[in-house]
């Protein structure tokens, strides 16, 4: 089941993203750290009703953010569509113990169906340049890699931006 997150679930989500960060670091993928994702980011996501949780067997195992808000870092990208009616995916995480079971695909299915239902033109996201597994997931789903951006508080390496048109 996927539903909107509650404020009191933020500690569980931070535990999941910390476990993800530790797992990625163990594979030399320095995408997330102690500064990101932050409690404040999740609090803002909950307040805006943009944070969703994935629950299985009465346990939260993952999350993602769906927002129409474009981060300023994205302005440098030459997107496929105008910057006016797009949905952005952020902070997608599946607890490492649950990875490899198709849960990230379920979250992306949800995001794509959500975008179509709400009449967005496209879905945009970024993923770390050293996270080959995520890149493969998005490319197999038909997302087009369009350029690189940087988040210096997270890494010196670039993040790749992707976009997919919503299929009506």
Q: How would you sum up this structure, described in words?
A:
The protein has 168 residues and is an alpha+beta fold. It has helices at 10-26, 39-47, 103-117, 132-140; strands spanning 2-4, 51-56, 59-67, 86-94, 122-128, 144-149, 159-165. The protein has a single domain, classed as 3-Layer(aba) Sandwich (Aminopeptidase), CATH 3.40.630.30. A seven-stranded mixed beta sheet has the order 1-2-3-4-5-7-6. It is globular. The protein starts with a strand and ends with a strand. The model has no long low-confidence stretch (mean pLDDT 94).
Features:
168 residues, globular, alpha+beta, 28% strand
Brief account:
By secondary structure, the chain is an alpha+beta fold. It has four helices and seven strands, in the order E-H-H-E-E-E-H-E-H-E-E.
| Total discrete domains | 1
Care to count the β-strands?
7
Shape: globular
CATH topology title = Aminopeptidase
Q: What class would the helix/strand composition place it in? A: alpha+beta
Please state how the strands of the largest beta sheet are arranged side by side.
1-2-3-4-5-7-6
Put simply, the count of helices is: 4
Q: What is the helix/strand order?
A: EHHEEEHEHEE
Kindly report how far apart the N and C termini lie: 24 Å
CATH architecture field: 3-Layer(aba) Sandwich
């Amino acid at each position: 089941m996927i539903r909107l997150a509650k404020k009191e679930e933020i500690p569980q989500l931070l535990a999941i993203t910390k476990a993800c960060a530790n797992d990625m670091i163990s594979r030399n993928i320095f995408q997330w750290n102690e500064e990101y994702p932050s409690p404040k980011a999740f609090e803002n996501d909950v307040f805006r009703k943009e944070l969703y949780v994935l629950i299985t067997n009465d346990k939260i195992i993952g999350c993602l953010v769906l927002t129409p808000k474009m981060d300023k870092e994205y302005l440098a990208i030459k997107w496929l569509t105008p910057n006016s009616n797009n949905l952005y995916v952020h902070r997608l995480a599946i607890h490492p113990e649950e990875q490899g079971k198709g849960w990230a695909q379920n979250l992306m299915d949800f995001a794509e169906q959500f975008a179509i239902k709400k009449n967005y033109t496209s879905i945009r996201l970024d993923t770390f340049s050293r996270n080959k597994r995520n890149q493969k997931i998005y490319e197999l789903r038909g997302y087009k890699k369009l350029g690189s951006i940087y988040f210096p508080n997270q890494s010196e390496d670039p993040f790749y931006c992707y976009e997919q048109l919503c299929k009506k």
